Amino acid sequence: MTKNFSGILTLNHKNYTIEMDKKFAAAASNPFSDEYAKLQEVRRDYPKYKVVVTSSKAKESTSGLTFEYMELYIEKHDDETKSIMAEYKFLRAQDETSKAMGLKGESYLTIRAWFLEKYPEVKEFISKREKIVEDLQKKREADRQAKQEGEIKERRAALLAKIA
After folding, report:
1. Phi first, then psi: what are they for 20, rounded to 5°?
2. Per residue in 72-108, pLDDT tens?
3. How far is Cα 85 from Cα 44, in angstroms, rounded to an integer?
4. Mean pLDDT throughout 143-159?
5. Alpha carbon distance 108, 113 (integer Å)
């Protein structure tokens, strides 16, 4: 009998984690669901692994990439004719023609995509920064877990010493 699970549940042996996406986590929060049963089965098989809810890999994070940042970056990296800033203002409906016509600017997502296409080095920088932060968070979590396991061993040794 095949069970159909919503979402994804995976084992990450490198990081000692049981990873699930938000959809699986939501379904697993119901103690009567197949997802809950599967999660508990995996937790029994891997008791030292930490359960983690992962965000979608497809989501592109551009934290800090505000309109203000884009404008400052364009000002510093525009060509002599200021054509990129003119294009940016046109997209934002901040140019004279758009203002006169009462037009609305494009969405943030559209302008962000345009900006990252014009300046791919910004996208590379953001990706590099996110990787460094992610690695730091993983190290902190590993250190915290190692410290916790050390404290448990110390308590266990102290209890055994009392017994002996």
Report:
1. -140, 150
2. 999 999 999 999 999 999 999 999 999 999 999 999 9
3. 58
4. 91
5. 9
The model's pLDDT over 80-90, given as tens digits with 9 standing for 90+, comes to 999 999 999 99
Cβ atoms of 103 and 95 within 8 Å: the answer is no
Rounded to 5 degrees, φ, ψ at 163 are -70, -40
Buried b (16+ CB within 10 A) or exposed e, 27-60: bbeeeebebeebbeebeeeeeebeeeeeeeeeee
Pair 127, 80: CB distance under 8 Å? no
Query: Which H helix or E strand runs over 119?
Result: none
User: What type of residue is 7?
Assistant: G
How many C-beta neighbours within 10 Å does residue 24 have? 22
Q: Is residue 83 helix, strand or coil?
A: helix
Tokens read off for 40: 């508990």
Residue 136: both structure tokens together: 């730091």
